[in-house]
Write a structure and sequence with these properties.
single chain, Rossmann fold, 2 domains, seven-stranded parallel β-sheet
Length: 329
């Protein structure tokens, strides 16, 4: 069987690589595509993947977003004109969904952000099956048109953290990893990003690694890393992780590293789910970060047994995608 996965961001790339591993092991072919983006190409190289690069991320205006999305969709149509995949898989790639739906290819979709209204409207109604964490109530996706939902025990990041074994490096001085807010995401437009100020306040506690999302050359008031950073590995070796609440928060917590998710944007269903399960993920307001940092920096939490109880969503997605093809034969 032939499957197609489109990775639009770094998280998508890591998820896609995990899914591809299961599909290849089962003897299937996978076509991995991506776009030019601050994280996708460097991470693909780090993961040993060689995706086809189709289009680019251009969020400077609504026009550039629309133009690039339309361009990618057209290029995908040409790519698969004589080579249709049996099924398509994505973590809500708008262009994959539009192309696959238009060509009659079943779509297996993963999603964990019910607050991402725009992308939910553009992808979920077109999916054949939606695979999502049990942390998220079904009705939140049903209102976007999801009609076939499969839930799993755990969160998406388990797909690559469960078998993740990064090299351990324990520097003398405490390491604090801070990830900039995803300011150009549609759901974050107009919201304040206080991560650089937080990084400045935390510098007395240790070495601060501030990882920007978009501008690799611009300086901040905090210690700035201007090249690609494998955040899953960096989180494994950090003494504290701070973000506005996303993938890196869960990557850290799943590895037993204390993680602080700042602001209401950090109070997602999946974050609250991990915290309730006993993982070291703390959701606080920006003015509380310093106090929590002082309390938890350097602590290590044994979460191996908790992590072992979770399902591997990449394996589940692979099985569902395979079954979707078999059911059509």
């Amino acid at each position: 069987m032939k499957f197609w996965y489109d990775a639009c961001t770094g998280k998508h790339m890591r998820y896609g690589a995990a899914i591809a591993k299961h599909l290849r092991k089962a003897g299937h072919e996978i076509i991995l595509t991506t776009r030019e983006h601050p994280d996708t190409l460097a991470l693909a190289q780090a993961l040993g993947e060689k995706p086809l690069v189709i289009g680019k991320y251009s969020p400077s205006s609504l026009f550039t977003r629309l133009d690039e999305s339309a361009t990618r969709t057209l290029q995908f149509s040409k790519l698969f004109r004589d080579n249709l995949p049996d099924a398509a898989i994505a973590h809500q790639s708008v262009e994959l969904c539009r192309t696959a739906f238009g060509l009659g290819v079943p779509i297996v979709l993963t999603a964990d952000t019910p607050h991402a209204i725009a992308v939910n409207k553009l992808t979920i109604p077109l999916s054949s099956t939606l695979v999502t964490s049990e942390a998220i109530p079904k009705n939140l996706f049903k209102k976007f048109g999801a009609w076939n939902i499969t839930r799993f025990k755990g969160v998406d990041e388990v797909a690559w953290i469960k078998s993740f074994k990064p090299p351990k490096k324990r520097p003398r001085k405490p390491q604090i990893l801070i990830r900039q807010m995803e300011t150009r995401a549609a759901y974050a437009l107009g919201k304040d990003d206080d991560t650089a100020n937080i990084a400045q306040k935390l510098q007395p506690l240790g070495d601060v690694l501030f990882v920007p999302r978009y501008d690799r050359t611009g300086k901040t008031s905090a210690i700035d890393k201007n090249q690609f950073v494998d955040t899953a590995k960096a989180a494994a070796n950090a003494d504290l992780v701070v973000s506005v609440g996303g993938t890196i928060s869960r990557e850290a917590a799943l590895q037993g590293v204390p993680s602080i998710a700042v602001s209401e944007m950090g109070r997602t269903y999946v974050n609250k789910y991990l915290a309730k399960k006993g993982f070291p993920l703390f959701m606080v307001k920006s003015q509380q970060v310093l106090d929590y940092a002082k309390k938890y920096i350097g602590q290590r939490f044994d979460v191996k047994e908790k992590l072992a109880e979770f399902e591997d969503p990449a394996e589940l997605v692979s099985k569902i995608a395979t079954q979707s093809v078999e059911s059509r034969c």
